[in-house]
Structures are given as C-alpha cells and as structure tokens.
Amino acid sequence: MSHKDLLSNKSPIIQFLFSLGLFIYFSKPVLKHFSEFIEGSCQKGYKGTVTDIVLLSTSGCHRTTYGKFLSDGAWDTAYATKAMKKHVIRNTYDLAASSQLPLFVIFDDTIAEKTKPSSQAENTIQQTEYHYSHLDRKQVWGHQLLTTMLSCGNTVLPYSIERYDKNNKSKIAMVCDLVDTLPNAKGKAYGLCDSWFTNKKVVNAHLKKGFNLIGALKTNRIIYPKGIGIQIKEFIQYIEKKDVRLVTVNRSKYWVYRYEGNLNGIDNAIVLLCWPENAFKKDKALHAFLCTDTELDTQTALEYYSKRWPIEIFFRQTKNNLGLNKYQVRSTKSIDRILVLISLTYIYCALRKDANGSFGKGLTICRNEVKRANISWIYQCAQNNIPLETVFRTMKVS
Fold first, then answer.
1. Which 3 state secondary structure label does DSSP give 127?
2. Interatomic CA distance for residues 378 and 383, integer angstroms
3. Could you give the angle at the alpha carbon of 310 between the alpha carbons of 306 and 312, nearest 5°?
4. Given pLDDT bands bounded at 50, 70 and 90, which one contains residue 9?
5. CA 19, CA 34: separation in Å to the nearest integer?
6. What are the pLDDT digits (tens) for 292-345?
7. Are 49 and 329 contacting, i.e. CB atoms less than 8 angstroms apart?
8. How far apart are CA 301 and CA 214, in angstroms?
9. Residue 4: is its pLDDT beyond 50?
10. How many CA atoms lie within 13 A of 33 on its CB side?
11. Residue 371 to residues 43, 140, 320, 368, 395, Cα–Cα distance (Å)
12. pLDDT, average across residues 5-25
C-alpha cells in the first residue's frame, strides 16, 4: 500500500472535492493536485510558495511540475469556481431556509501586497500596481482583491475572490455582476458593505434579487429632512440629545439618530447616525449607515451590519494561514487559480465536522488528521517490513 493511496485516494479532502462535483469537470491528476494544495496549505509552516505545497503535502512531484500545473495545466478555473459557488449557495441558502435566520452577502476588498520590482526586473508579477490601503492609509504595491462571502448563522463562506483591474470593470460593476449570479432570496436577506459600495446601482442590484442593503455612508451624502437637502455632516449640528436614543449593539452602546426618507438616487431608506456613548457629537466619532429595509428596527439594523465583520477575519486568516498575500506565482492565470484553491481550502476547513463553521477549528482538525494519517502509514510500513530508508524518502526527510 502506497503513502499516496492512504493519504490521497481515501482522504476526506478527495471526498470533499467529489461532493462539489469536481470529478465531472476534472481528471484524477488534476483533482490530485487540488488535494495536494489543500493538504499542504493547511499545514504549519506554509508560507504561500509552490515549494511549500510540495514539501508539506504527500505530493510526489517536483515543485516545477506543480508550478506548471498552476501556469499551464489543462483545467478551467471557471468550472472550479462554478462548482465552488454552487456548494456555498447550497450550504448557506439551505441553512437560511431551515433555520429561518437571515441570509447575508458581504462585500469588501483587500490588498495582497507585493514588493515593487526594480525597473530592470525581467519576470515581474503580472498586473500588480499601486492601490490605496485603508489599513495602512497609504498607496501600496500589489493586487486588490474584491471578495464576496455568503453568511447565515455561524456559517460564513467565501463565494468569490477576484482581482480588481483598473483598466477593466469598476468595483461597483463587479459587485453588481456578482449579486446577479445569486439565486433570488426567499426569506430575509441583506447585502452588507462599506461606504465605497453604498450607491444606487448596488442597491438596485440587491433589490432585484430580493436582498435589502445595509451599508456604511460617507458623511457628505445628502439627506432630505423635511424636504431640504443637506449633507449629513452639516445636518448633525441640528441634532440634540433629546433627538437620539441609546442603543446597545453587541454589548457596546451608541447614541443613534434615525432618519427615514429619500437620498439622491434612493427613493426611501433609513439612515442611522451613530456615536459611541461617551463621544456624542465629538469630532470624527460619527458613523452613518443606510438600510433599505425601513421596517427594520434600529438595533437590529446595526446588529445586522456588524455581521460584516467576518470578512475582515477572513482576510486575516487567509493571509496568516493560507498565503493570500504571499503567493509567488507570476502570471495572472496562476494567480487566479491560486485564489480559487485558497477559497476551496477555506471552505473545506470551515465545513469540517465538529468545526461548527469555524475556520480556525477546522484548520486544527485538518492538521491533526494529516498527522494521524502519517503515523498510521508509518505504523503499517513497520508491520509490512518496509525499509526505513523508503519511509524517510517518502516522508521527504531523507
């Protein structure tokens, strides 16, 4: 019995890939490489390189072979993306239907930062450029990645990670196109986004699919209290303590003013103007939010918006554990394939039995599973008198 048979053909990873229906689209060698990526990227010590995948998985190939699989392999990223999206939709939509909990679609972007190459570099990473990082508050070099996640209850799964190309679609158009790929919502459903995406086009794209939108607002947005147009940052001078009420959201308290009416391009919505309890009307303490579901009470609307936070956790987890900002492949084709494989790995970990939707717990389960499988294989080698040098060579410690 070979190490490959024990850890690949019978592994939960292969079973996961089959549950996605990927065997319909891809050959066994391609699925084997998928499995190797998931297995390798789950291990401690993974830093996002192709070499790491080969060394940390049960792959028997050379790193150049795996590199060619990413850059020139005969497999269509669109098919893998289609299967992955169907799986995510099935898990979240079914959970929303059975639990009667709201369904959320979450949008945000992040930057996979790279080192800017010198002017004399011959082989640079394709389509890298400067992007503004809100986290670092400066322009950084790399790829900007628009990410979409679907969420219900404790289940939060990546639906899409796409490179943003300034010379192609705008991020607003990308979001609208992604929403259009979702099935119509049958129960309560909300899109969650920051102020960059809160506009008429995104609102209408969501409403078309049965989703309301809850998004942050910039304070220069115009509202129409009593029919008079005024920017939010100017309107707050007329708000007094008697006009707001204290609302508790996730154990934090905020003073909130609620406006309902029209905005430019939006016929009717609620706007919530919020200050921390100890910072009412203090400079830079104001946060504004829009919600198109006017029947939603203030506290619930703010609690629903807080459901956007898991996408920030997703960025941190994938960068720290799955190499989202450390990949070293250079062609856009390879990069796009890496992004799909990272998404598959995250989904695999989050949906593991006993993980309860937690990627961190699922990652620990996967690591322990590989350790147990390796120990089991070594034990069976000993029982079958397999030479120790063969074990060392197979385990890549010779």
1. coil
2. 9
3. 100
4. low
5. 14
6. 999 999 999 999 999 999 999 999 999 999 999 888 898 999 999 999 999 999
7. no
8. 7
9. no
10. 23
11. 10, 39, 21, 5, 12
12. 80
Identify whether the C-beta of residue 161 lies closer than 8 Å to the C-beta of residue 143: no
Cβ distance 286 to 233 under 8 Å?
A: yes
Q: How far is CA 35 from CA 8, 42, 59, 342, 346, in A?
A: 7, 11, 9, 12, 13
CATH number of this structure's domain 79-312:
3.90.350.10
Question: Over 80: is that where the pLDDT of 120 sits?
Answer: no
Q: CA-CA distance, 82 to 94, in Å (whole number)?
A: 18
Beta-sheet strands, E only, within the chain: 103-113, 129-133, 138-152, 155-163, 189-193, 212-217, 222-223, 230-231, 245-249, 252-263, 266-276, 287-291
CA distance 160 to 157: 9
**Tell me: the pLDDT tens digits for 37-63?**
999 999 999 999 999 999 898 888 889
Coil vs helix vs strand at 54: helix
- Residues near 166 by beta carbon (within 8 Å), at least 6 away in sequence: 129
Q: Is the pTM of this model over 0.90?
A: yes
Tokens matching residue 273: 């103007």
What letter does residue 60 receive in the DSSP assignment? -
Break the chain into its structural domains and give their ranges: 3-74+352-394, 79-312
